[in-house]
């Protein structure tokens, strides 16, 4: 096409037809501009294709992370519930002093209530990498970007709540560091001593006096309240957030 315009241009100059020459010169410029626009459009299409592929890789990785975090949170909710339910059983015995549990049952209840740290450890490695590198902008869905950003702040809030719960738990455990009560008795009766290969005590100190302690009751009440609030005000909403994030991610993944 350009050769044709050049031939016509030469003929126009030869014939001194300036107006025709200008017309065809403009046409030649237009063709060049069109070529540039087509090249830009192709480059842009390629960039968009690469961006979509990159986004899909991120989405699949995020889905794996949040599915793992979802499983962890379900397990943590179960542990937390067992903790405060067994704590409530101890309080029931404190009300009925005529029907106290034997040392073995009390040890089992105390162990289930206090032996496990309640701490959520989500899988956030990919998400944090995306945030730190500025790659979160590669997620096209604006709603999903907001959910992912809010997720980090929610995790920070939960960490603070879990710290409060740990403090309440430590107040109870501190009571076993006194002369009146015995962690060793708990270890012996729940099998921890055997696991740690620690010799069993020949003369165990009973922990049943705790059931008559107002300090122990107060600490248990605060522990139970904090445990339940951790579940209802933090873990349950967080589970809903995970469900929404996973649903949104699934809608964006092209499989």
Number of discrete helical segments: 8
Q: What is the N-to-C order of secondary-structure elements (H for helix, E for strand)?
A: HHHHHHHH
Secondary structure category = mainly alpha
User: Averaged pLDDT, please?
Assistant: 86
- Judging from the principal axes of the Cα atoms, what is the shape? rod-shaped
Helix content: over 70%
Characterize the biggest β-sheet.
none
Enumerate the spans where pLDDT stays under 50 for 5 or more consecutive residues: none
* Strand elements, count: 0
* N→C terminal distance: 44 Å
Percent range for β-strand residues: under 5%
Please tag this protein with its features.
255 residues, 8 helices
Structure description:
This protein has 255 residues and is an all-alpha fold. It has 8 helices and no strands. It is rod-shaped and about 115 Å long.
Short description:
This protein has helices at 2-14, 18-95, 103-114, 125-133, 142-174, 183-190, 192-195, 214-252.
Q: What's the SSE blueprint?
A:
Blueprint lengths: L1 H13 L3 H78 L7 H12 L10 H9 L8 H33 L8 H8 L1 H4 L18 H39 L3
């Amino acid at each position: 096409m350009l050769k044709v315009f050049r031939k016509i241009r030469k003929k126009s100059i030869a014939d001194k037809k300036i107006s025709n020459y200008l017309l065809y010169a403009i046409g030649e410029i237009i063709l060049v501009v069109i070529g540039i626009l087509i090249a830009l459009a192709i480059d842009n299409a390629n960039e968009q294709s690469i961006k979509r592929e990159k986004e899909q890789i991120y989405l699949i990785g995020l889905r794996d992370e949040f599915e793992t975090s979802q499983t962890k949170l379900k397990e943590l909710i179960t542990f937390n519930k067992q903790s405060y339910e067994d704590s409530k059983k101890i309080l029931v015995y404190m009300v009925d002093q005529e029907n106290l549990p034997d040392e073995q049952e009390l040890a089992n209840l105390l162990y289930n209530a206090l032996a496990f740290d309640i701490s959520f450890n989500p899988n956030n490695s990919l998400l944090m990498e995306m945030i730190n590198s500025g790659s979160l902008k590669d997620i096209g869905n604006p709603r999903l970007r907001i959910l992912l950003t809010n997720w980090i702040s929610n995790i920070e809030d939960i960490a603070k709540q879990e710290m409060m719960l740990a403090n309440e738990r430590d107040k109870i455990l501190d009571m076993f560091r006194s002369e009146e009560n015995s962690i060793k008795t708990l270890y012996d009766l729940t099998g921890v001593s055997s696991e740690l290969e620690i010799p069993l005590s020949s003369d165990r100190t009973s922990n049943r006096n705790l059931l008559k302690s107002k300090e122990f009751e107060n600490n248990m009440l605060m522990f139970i309240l904090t445990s339940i609030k951790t579940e209802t005000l933090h873990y349950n909403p967080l589970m809903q957030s995970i469900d929404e994030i996973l649903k949104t991610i699934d809608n964006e993944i092209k499989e």
